[in-house]
Write a structure and sequence with these properties.
It is found in: Membrane. By secondary structure, the chain is mainly α. It has ten helices and no strands.
């Protein structure tokens, strides 16, 4: 939830306040953000406590080959589909505001002066509002899809996430209305958050509680990879195909989601079980 609502707090409360205090100076604003974080995070972290070890169930540590699992087919399949789910979300987390502003500019009159401060401020405010709203959906997705996966199964839920986003990316190619665009972005971010809601339970189902911490951490390297690929897709399109950057990014993202959907059918629960034997 923190990932989603953190964006809400930053975009609508903290960032505007600090920008105002620094008279719009971005460098100074980042110094202020750093100062707030360096004070706030240690204070909040001081309230965290590790649970006391249960001596009645304490056992000698066992040597477990994590590498065997990471190199296995089930791990690779889940890693790939999670990476693709991250890529889809990161396309919008990084560029939802510029993409929305591009759509809004298309609907403005030909004589609009986009260098005017008031016009740019209104566009930026619209982008910040979308970031705030979509971040709420990002947070909600972790609860909603996690609960759904408890009822229908983890991999079935991942398939729904991938298929739904593939459809939405297809619709985004045709959409030129800012409200419809914003709604679709929120659904994508709902699915993005859903991946984080499903993955911990899937990891535990696959490997058990003893291996979960190590292998869940290994799965999260997909988050890093997706965080690189997603923004680079949109950045490349905006640098090389400025007028159709959104269109091409949606085509690439939708294609990856389709690949991820079909890749999910390579997952076999029995392969994980056999690896334990």
């Amino acid at each position: 939830m923190g990932f989603g609502f953190g964006a809400l707090v930053m975009s609508k409360f903290l960032a505007p306040l600090l920008l105002q205090l620094s008279d719009g100076n971005l460098s100074t604003t980042f110094y202020y953000v750093g100062a707030v974080m360096i004070v706030l995070i240690p204070v909040l972290a001081s309230f965290l406590q590790l649970p006391k070890p249960d001596k009645t169930h304490e056992k000698k540590p066992e040597r477990i080959s994590i590498a065997r699992h990471i190199q296995s087919k089930p791990f690779i399949v889940v890693w790939l589909i999670f990476t693709i789910n991250i890529v889809a979300g990161m396309i919008f987390i990084s560029f939802q505001s510029p993409l929305l502003q591009d759509i809004l500019k298309m609907r403005m009159s030909d004589g609009t002066n986009f260098s005017d401060g008031e016009t740019m401020a209104s566009l930026a405010a619209a982008g910040a509002t979308l970031i705030a709203v979509s971040s709420v959906f990002n947070g909600m997705g972790r609860f909603a899809w996690g609960s759904i996966s408890d009822k229908i199964g983890r991999m079935y839920t991942f398939r729904i996430l991938l298929a739904l986003q593939a459809v939405i990316f297809g619709l985004l190619i045709l959409v030129h209305h800012p409200v419809v665009f914003s709604v679709l972005v929120c659904i994508v971010l709902l699915c993005y958050g859903g991946g984080f809601g499903v993955l911990p339970s899937l990891t535990k189902d696959m490997y058990g509680s003893k291996l979960m911490p190590s292998l869940y951490g290994a799965f999260l390297t997909a988050w890093s990879m997706g965080g690189i690929i997603g923004p680079q897709i949109v950045a490349f399109m905006k640098d090389n195909y400025a007028e159709k950057a959104g269109l091409f990014a949606f085509v690439v993202g939708g294609g990856l989601l389709i690949v991820g959907f079909f890749t999910s059918f390579l997952y076999r629960r029995k392969d994980v079980i056999n690896l334990e034997n």
